[in-house]
Design goal:
The chain is α/β, with parallel strands linked by helices. It is built from 37 helices and 44 strands.
Length: about 1100
């Protein structure tokens, strides 16, 4: 069948900011779809609010809009662009929900937009719990027994019939939001109320608990003629009760019989046929190993987190193929070097793939580390090996949690068997590490199976690893017998872990095994739909099948590893661009990474992809095999930088800024000496390793001080400390953060404006495209602060100073490539806070707003020593940028309802959005709208601020009053506003009696909250206020700076109305050289 000719222009909706449950796998699927459709000759209009993506680059689609994802904005774009078709199933849950809303409001019909790929009624059949149940009943496919409730009382009645425990699932949500498992009536009342509120349509499904069953997933692809193939069978090793996003899983299925897999496939095909999806669908089943019952849990009629995993696990590019099928092609039309055409595809790889999740519990004080039906993971890794043991141990060392094997995590090896078994009762992120120690302490496979319901085969495999480790431990202090070492390597024990167990240097182990001829070999994973493309994984269990090319000079790029808070998609963005730029310069590019969600692990981003952990052992093996001219470490965030020095010691050439310079920037004393030489001011500071030193330094500098460990990304372990008592507490808790690396103590700049500048430097000249101004004051982590680019409130003299300091520092440090500088301005004086001689998380942001290709320019400089090309820096001119971009961070507080959502020096955001406009006020308003908390244009605003903020709040209150808002205020905040002659009402705080603010927020009487935390001054905790705001979805600001921005944004939109939408390409055309 030929492709459709009745459509020419296709609208693709992206998935918005990265949140828990919806990460960069949608950048991967959206980017692939754009590639496929462009190749077929369609014009593409793309909408997404997330600037840190490859898909929003001006080159990816023909027309790109970085706009908030909601019906009003999409209608503006559709009216302006008039697309013929909409492809909704590549933008995650956001894309699907928006398509359904556009359809319901009649907008698609009004502008004659056809939906391709998945029909609107199919979305409903897949997402609406009642519709889905009807469809399953019609097919005679069993589901867990359940009923739908619209009120809490209905839910109570249903639960009585089914018997507790029951699971609650709200309709049209994702990542298990708002749902949960409840064991009694009281719990049901709380969770059900929350669920009804989280659901788009106010319905919650109450279903029987199938806890402890096997959770199995199939990834199915269907074309318009009804041909279907199963791309991948995924077995969740954690049984039902843990959300699949948190669950540890394997592909292919390792313990499920052929016969059972056939039954699952047959049911999945019937379901997908009935829903009529074209493209990829993820179908989740539960199987009871005792009674052999199979029930279907749910389907996702879209590319999902699992489909990104399935694509990378099998080499079948699901999103790419889905986009081609949506245009009317069939599986028979797509040729493939291995299967002839794709309709003959079967998953037949002879290797094991493991996915393991990465969490961020340490970032959220007060959150219990406990896994359930609501997703908690912020990222994941995938590893490939020949055997389960090998793949499992590779996954553990890919996580970058400082663990290179399963044993001796935290203090688990000091606990008794009874304590460990007790800890296993509630699933947590440490579950498999606890199981390992319990086996070591003599727990039986059966005992562990009874508690965890993990299949005995997996526990048995783990027990064999424990036994092997115990045998190795009898050889402490020396090399074990050769056959023991060889066996350990085949079973996935890493050199580093062996060196920790045996207490001998890692090099000794590596050199000895190489003498024995035990080295990594590589096998390829064929990419379906291509003649002979493949990517590679290492194994100690097979001969080498890795063809090496020597036609072009090679360069290796180290990726960023798993997504986590502080190191996300922005670094992947840099790696992808570096790879594309190197290809243009005539190099063969090699990428090493282990994150299945990303564009960098897409087979055609680089010439050769190694799907491997980023550890010394794995990277050195590849380096030895491929012999590249050099390695680029500055684009993947902290991960490759931590490896750089070790690699250099082993004779690897690091291109660009040298690792010693990176160390210099981290070493406070060396850096301070350099700043003194350059006569650049820094806040007073010191370094301490003991409590006594810390107190002495803090008292010299004067409180408040900012404390943090050295060498971290994302402000891990950073705090503002106000007195001796706090300092003693911090130092006692902080010992474990970084061994042999001191704690840094700086004077905390009070009421200072923070700003940052990204620069490109060639070692002698540096260019700064724009200075970014943070909206939140110093003390809020730069990754969490909203920021304005180009800056608005910084005086021209200060901007000049910042550019000059940045240039001086880049030249003095001989930075080659990218660099990020953080500054604070206190009373008109610019202080340097820190220098990061590497790519930072703002690179995509600066690139998009200023229309400058930062990474390709940096790549050109980094490789100049090989290509002899002149530096591009002297040709760059300062630009006049007539538009403002406001970046706003997105936080997972709605998933962690017990956490106080207040901002500080430790980074807690998972993603970001961008608002663009020629007016700063509107750009800020759009950025808030894009985080899904739209600012109100009328109604009631509640103001309650702490002592420090009182003087400045009056002018903010005045702006709100002039814009017609009713003002409520508490205590002394009220007195101040009232004395200034601004009309306001006084309201009660929680402990002052009823009705109080909490009652008003809960009843929906308040539309906007401005509340800076009372902090240490107050006896009463006011975090209830901010937690209530999140629960009631009321926009809230926790700093006066943000309140001021909010007031000006609301004022602008009230006076000018909703502005027109402009594409990124149009905004870029308005930028010109400064006169």
């Amino acid at each position: 069948m030929p492709q459709r000719t009745d459509i020419h222009k296709v609208l693709i909706i992206g998935s918005g900011p990265i949140i828990i449950g919806q990460a960069c796998e949608f950048d991967y699927s959206g980017t692939q779809a754009c590639k496929a459709l462009k190749k077929l000759g369609y014009e593409i209009v793309l909408v997404n609010s997330n600037p840190a993506t490859i898909m929003t680059d001006p080159e990816t689609a023909d027309v790109t809009y970085i706009e908030p994802l909601n019906v009003q904005r999409l209608e503006q774009i559709i009216a302006k662009e008039r697309p013929d078709a909409l492809l909704p199933n590549l933008g995650g849950q956001s894309g699907l929900n928006l398509c359904a809303e556009l359809y319901k409001e009649g907008i698609l019909d009004k502008y004659q937009v056809k939906v391709i790929g998945v029909q609107v009624d199919a979305i409903e059949r897949g997402e609406d719990r009642i519709e889905f149940k009807k469809a399953m009943n019609a097919l005679g496919i069993e589901m867990a027994r359940s009923e739908v409730a619209y009120t809490v009382n209905e839910a109570l009645a249903i639960a009585d019939q089914l018997g507790y425990p029951v699971v609650l699932r709200p309709a049209y949500t994702m990542g298990g939001a708002g749902g949960g498992l409840v064991y009694n009536k009281e719990e049901l009342k709380t969770v059900c109320a929350r669920g009804l509120q989280a659901s788009l349509v106010g319905q919650v499904l109450v279903e029987e608990s199938i806890l402890g069953w096997e959770e199995l997933e199939l990834e199915v692809v269907r074309d318009k003629e009804g041909n279907m193939i199963t791309v991948c069978f995924i077995e969740n090793i954690d049984p039902l009760g843990v959300h699949t996003g948190d669950s540890f899983c394997s592909a292919p299925m390792l313990t499920i019989s052929e016969e059972c897999q056939k039954r699952l496939q047959e049911q999945a095909y019937r379901i997908v046929e009935s829903v009529q999806v074209i493209g990829g669908t993820n179908v989740q089943f539960a199987h009871d190993p005792v009674s052999d019952r199979i029930v279907v849990i749910e389907i996702n009629p879209r590319t999902s987190r699992s489909s990104a995993l399935a694509s990378k696990a099998t080499g079948f590019p699901i999103a790419l193929v889905s986009a081609m099928l949506a245009t009317g092609l069939t599986l028979k039309d797509i040729p493939c070097g291995k299967y002839g055409t794709l309709d003959n595809y079967v998953p037949d790889g002879d290797y094991v793939v493991i996915k393991f999740a990465r969490w961020a519990f340490e970032k959220f004080k007060g959150v219990e580390d406990k896994l359930g039906t609501q997703m908690r993971a912020v990222g994941e890794v995938m590893s490939i090996g020949k055997t389960y043991k090998e793949a499992f141990q590779k996954a553990i060392r890919s996580l970058e949690t400082g663990r290179y094997g399963l044993g001796h995590a935290k203090d688990f090896d000091t606990r008794t068997k009874e304590q460990l078994l007790q800890m296993l009762i509630t699933p947590s992120s440490e579950r498999h590490f606890i199981m390992y120690e319990a086996l070591r302490k003599g727990a039986t496979v059966e005992e562990i199976h009874d508690i965890t319901k993990v299949k005995t085969w997996f526990i048995q495999q783990m027990k064999e690893l424990v036994d092997e480790e115990e045998a190795l431990l009898t050889h402490k202090g020396a090399l074990p017998a050769d056959e023991l070492l060889i066996s350990a390597k085949k079973n996935g024990f890493s050199d580093k872990y062996l060196s920790q167990l045996l207490e001998i240097p890692e090099d000794t182990i590596r050199n000895h095994r190489i003498e024995l001829g035990v080295e990594e070999a590589w096998e390829g994973v064929h990419v379906s739909g291509t003649t002979d493309s493949a990517y590679y994984y290492s194994t100690y269990n097979a001969p080498d099948k890795n063809p090496i090319h020597t036609d072009n000079p090679k360069i290796m790029i180290l990726g960023g590893g798993p997504n986590r808070i502080g190191q996300g998609i922005e670094f992947d963005y840099c790696c992808v661009h570096a790879s594309l730029a190197l290809k243009k310069l005539g190099f063969e590019t090699i990428i090493v990474n282990c994150n299945p969600e990303t564009v960098s692990t897409d087979y055609d981003t680089s010439d050769k992809l190694y799907f491997e952990p980023l550890t010394l052992e794995d990277v050195l093996s590849i380096y030895k095999k491929e012999k590249p001219l050099g390695v680029i470490a500055q684009f993947g965030g902290q991960t490759p930088l931590n490896l750089a020095a070790e690699l250099e010691k082993n004779g690897v050439r690091i291109l660009g800024t040298s690792p010693s310079v990176i160390d210099l920037a981290e070493d406070r004393d060396l850096f301070r000496a350099m700043m003194e030489k350059l006569e650049i001011p820094m806040p007073e500071s010191g370094m301490a390793t003991t409590v006594e030193e810390a107190l002495k330094i803090a008292n010299q500098i004067g409180y408040p001080v900012m404390v943090r460990p050295s060498y971290v990304l994302g402000g891990r372990g950073m705090e503002v400390v106000y007195d001796d008592e706090n300092m003693i507490g911090y130092m006692q808790a902080a010992v474990g953060v970084t061994p042999d690396r001191p704690i840094l103590i700086d004077r905390f700049l009070n009421h200072a404006m923070e700003c940052e500048a990204d620069a490109i430097s060639d070692g002698t000249h540096a260019f700064v495209p724009a200075v970014m101004e943070h909206i939140e004051l110093a003390g809020v982590h730069s990754g969490d602060s909203a920021c304005i680019i180009p800056s608005l409130h910084i005086s021209p003299e200060n901007v000049k100073t910042i550019q000059e300091y940045t240039r001086k520092i880049a030249e003095e440090m001989h930075v080659r490539g990218l660099m990020n500088m953080q500054y604070a301005i206190e009373n008109g004086k610019v202080y340097v806070l820190e220098a990061n001689p590497r790519a930072s998380r703002t690179v995509p942001l600066v690139s998009k707003v200023c229309n400058i290709r930062m990474v390709p320019l940096a790549t050109d400089i980094v490789t100049a020593e090989l290509t002899g090309r002149p530096s591009p820096i002297p040709q760059l001119k300062e630009q006049e940028i007539p538009n403002y971009g406001v970046k706003e961070a997105v936080f997972p507080f709605n998933m962690f309802q017990e956490v106080d959502p207040v901002l500080g020096p430790e980074m807690r955001s998972t993603g970001e959005v961008l608002g663009l406009s020629h007016s700063y006020g509107e750009a800020f308003y759009k950025a808030q709208e894009a985080t899904q908390s739209r600012l109100p244009l009328e109604g009631t605003v509640l103001i309650s601020v702490n002592r420090k903020d009182k003087p400045e709040i009056v002018e903010v209150a005045r702006t709100f009053a002039e814009d017609g808002f009713i003002i409520l205020a508490t205590g002394t905040t009220y007195d101040l506003i009232h004395e200034a002659g601004i009309p306001a009402k006084k309201v009660k705080k929680l402990y002052e009696g009823r009705p109080n603010i909490l009652d008003m927020i809960t009843n929906g009487d308040i539309q906007l909250i401005i509340n800076s935390p009372s902090g240490k001054d107050s006896v009463h905790d006011d975090s209830y206020l901010r937690k209530a705001a999140i629960k009631a979805k009321v926009p809230y600001m926790t700093t006066v700076a943000a309140a001021r921005a909010t007031a000006s944004g609301i004022h602008y939109v009230k006076t000018h109305g909703n502005g027109e939408v402009k594409s990124l390409q149009l905004l870029h055309s308005e930028i010109h050289d400064k006169e």
